[in-house]
Amino acid sequence: MGLKVYINGQLYDKADAKISVYDHGLLYGDGVFEGLRSYGGKVFRLREHLDRLWKSAKAICLKIPMTMDEMTQAVNDTIKVNNIQDGYVRLVITRGSGTLGLDPNRCSDPQVIIIADSITLYPAEFYEKGLQIVTVSTIRNHPAALSPRIKSLNYLNNILAKIEGMQAGCVEALMLNHNGEVAECTGDNIFLVRDGELLTPPVDSGILEGITRDAVMELAREAGITVKEKTLTRHDVYIADECFLTGSAAEVIPVVKVDTREIGDGNPGPMTLDLTRRFRELTRR
Ligand code: PMP
């Protein structure tokens, strides 16, 4: 049996799961999404993802045509029907099919899409040895233009940065904000360790409020580590003892080189390894 995709309350075979070419999600990137993980058939922090989805939708004046409880049920049903244990869920709400003009009021009905599948973002080797990343010249969206807190279908800012990173031979890239401060990577939040403290840019630096980021900060605090949300510069990254990234798809992944500078001794550091272990335990609880 092939993969089933949920669209507006119905399940379709993957090959038949289609939406209109007039959908403003396609025409203009007008919509919002979430990427979630399931572990042992249970979605990790589903409520937090739905809260963020609803907030993203609110910010773009998009009304999600169902309740959070109905969405919870739909996500769980889609995972179940596809027999997903450890997998990845993509939740997409588009503006719906409309006319060939920007006006969102001329779109008929938002489309709710749920894809439950598997994902391998990076090869296992990167988790063991750590990533090498570069800072790219594409800055993160100015919050007054398109807030990075909105997880919108318009991901070109991140894709352009990713292309730059890949051209430099890296699978992930560091993005600065409009003030030249460290923001985040193209699909992951960034953390540094310095003098035993865990540092990460605040939301004000123009980042997505990552759910994995929140989980890791909680775990660190539980472990007695001082956690600071602090404005960071590239210099802070270069002189850090450790660096790692977090994201639903990436989970926790060490970074060992940034712009050709070795971070710490060039190996994944002890706090990174400890928090990785704690995160794994949390997801398997
Ligand atoms: N920043 C960006 C730009 C992202 O796309 C993601 C992945 N959704 C993250 C950070 C990490 O967020 P989360 O931990 O909620 O997946």
From TrEMBL:
Keywords assigned: Amino-acid biosynthesis, Aminotransferase, Branched-chain amino acid biosynthesis, Pyridoxal phosphate, Transferase
GO cellular component: cytosol
The keyword Amino-acid biosynthesis appears for this protein: yes
Domain of life the protein comes from: Bacteria
Catalyzed reactions: L-isoleucine + 2-oxoglutarate = (S)-3-methyl-2-oxopentanoate + L-glutamate; L-valine + 2-oxoglutarate = 3-methyl-2-oxobutanoate + L-glutamate; L-leucine + 2-oxoglutarate = 4-methyl-2-oxopentanoate + L-glutamate
CDD domains found in the cross-reference section: D-AAT_like
Cofactor(s) needed by this chain: pyridoxal 5'-phosphate
Class of the enzyme per the UniProt entry, highest EC level: transferase
InterPro entries reported in the protein's UniProt record: Aminotrans_IV, Aminotrans_IV_CS, Aminotransferase-like, B_amino_transI, BCAT-like_C, BCAT-like_N, Class-IV_PLP-Dep_Aminotrnsfr
Keyword Transferase assigned: yes
Entries under Pfam families matching the protein: Aminotran_4
GO biological process: isoleucine biosynthetic process; L-leucine biosynthetic process; L-valine biosynthetic process
EC number: 2.6.1.42
Gene Ontology molecular function: L-isoleucine-2-oxoglutarate transaminase activity; L-leucine-2-oxoglutarate transaminase activity; L-valine-2-oxoglutarate transaminase activity
Pathway stated in the Swiss-Prot or TrEMBL entry: Amino-acid biosynthesis; L-isoleucine biosynthesis; L-isoleucine from 2-oxobutanoate: step 4/4; Amino-acid biosynthesis; L-leucine biosynthesis; L-leucine from 3-methyl-2-oxobutanoate: step 4/4; Amino-acid biosynthesis; L-valine biosynthesis; L-valine from pyruvate: step 4/4
Family membership: Belongs to the class-IV pyridoxal-phosphate-dependent aminotransferase family.
Functional summary from the UniProt entry: Acts on leucine, isoleucine and valine.
Name of the protein in question: Branched-chain-amino-acid aminotransferase
Organism: Lignipirellula cremea
